[in-house]
């Protein structure tokens, strides 16, 4: 084929190829076939040296013109395809603002956290500070400095999770033997920590998790939540204790619930009481929920034992105080008439979403 015909054929082939090409990749194939290293036009250019000298200038000019035509055609088609791709992308990403939205499910705070915060609010309103303490406690803070005698049953391994030290010589990094450390069985140890660091007046609460080797049943959980309270100041009396805790019960359970104070024993308070709130199911008449007593126990309390103050170098002749420990799961059970504390541990949304 004469070179002019070949050039015309190449141009026609490119034109046809470009018309068919629907993507930048297809366009690229057309370009490579014509002007790539092994392309048809490139081959012609290479043969230019073999053209008779008198024809060479005209033929060279023609070939160059064809090449620039081809390049212009390719560039124009590339522009069209780029625009089409952009249009497709824009329409694919378009948002139909008239479509109904997908609602996302919003979580809620767990009932225990809600109540813990509510209790914090009540005492913060009275000017108390909110303290924190360690989950892993030593025997001194959990028992000894709280005036618990060495043979007190609460110290036994049946009632306390002792931390087992796996270090080779039985002494870990802390230099304590296993039986010195435990998962705190009560938040009362935080009283001792706070009084070691600060002197009266002290008005504090400490909410937190505590642990006991109990099997979970309707009334017990191996891990639960307490709010400890401690007041130490000059001239604090049992009247202050009762006024404060009655106020607390009214705020949390409502004005129609009655309270009663039953004498009890705790090593760290003297005298000590347990406080009951009237049953919300039977309003004091007696039912299965309150085991026919009409009352439900929610906290322990008492006047701080002078021995506890002596452990932390606070003068019991000058200062007196009261302390209390509220069971948060019990407050939840009482307020919402929950028949079984285990409901609070399940994570069952059908239950938890009601609050
Ligand atoms: N620590 C007690 C318990 O776990 C609760 C308690 C009772 C705390 C009386 C106190 C208190 O601070 O004064 O059963």
Task: Give structural attributes.
355 residues, alpha+beta, BirA Bifunctional Protein, domain 2, 2 domains, 7-stranded mixed β-sheet, two-stranded antiparallel ribbon, elongated, binds 3,4-dihydroxyphenylalanine
Notes on the structure:
- The mean pLDDT is 91.
- The protein is elongated, with a radius of gyration of 42 Å.
- By secondary structure, the protein is of the alpha+beta class.
- The protein has 2 domains: 91 residues; 196 residues, 2-Layer Sandwich (BirA Bifunctional Protein, domain 2), CATH 3.30.930.10.
- The chain has a 7-stranded mixed β-sheet, with helices on both faces.
- Bound molecules: 3,4-dihydroxyphenylalanine (DAH).
- 3,4-dihydroxyphenylalanine binds next to strand 8 and strand 9.
Outline of this structure?
This protein is α+β, with helices and mostly antiparallel strands. It has eleven helices and nine strands.
What is the CATH first-level class name of the largest domain? Alpha Beta
When the domains are counted, the total is: 2
Radius of gyration: 42 Å
Query: Considering DSSP H and I runs of 4 or more, what fraction of the residues is helical?
Result: 25-40%
End-to-end Cα distance, whole Å, is 89 Å
CATH superfamily of the largest domain: Bira Bifunctional Protein, Domain 2
Helix/strand-derived category reads alpha+beta
Which residues sit in consecutive blocks of at least 5 with pLDDT less than 50? none
- The total beta strand count reads 9
Indicate the CATH architecture of the largest domain. Answer: 2-Layer Sandwich
Within the largest sheet, what's the order of strands?
1-4-5-9-8-7-6
Work out the strand percent. Answer: 15-25%
Quaternary state reads single chain
Largest sheet: 7 strands, mixed
Order of helices and strands: HHHHHEEHEHEEHEEEHEHH
